[in-house]
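As a warm-up, study this chain.
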Amino acid sequence: MPSMSYCMFENTAGEMSQCLDRLEDNLDNDEFLRDMNTYERDGILELMRMAKQFARHEGFLKRLEKEYESNPER
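Now compare it with the structure written out below.
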């Protein structure tokens, strides 16, 4: 079910945290990707691609965060 726009980032962060926990639990498991079905494997590789793309916007997000902290009423 898609997230409502007002909680999309919060919901996605929670689910991404679960994915990261699963990945970190399997760092010593050489079979981790091989044991996944095609959909899971495609999904984790897509998450990695999107995480890199998302990280490219860090400067923009940090700037917005500073603006918000200096003027939280906005």
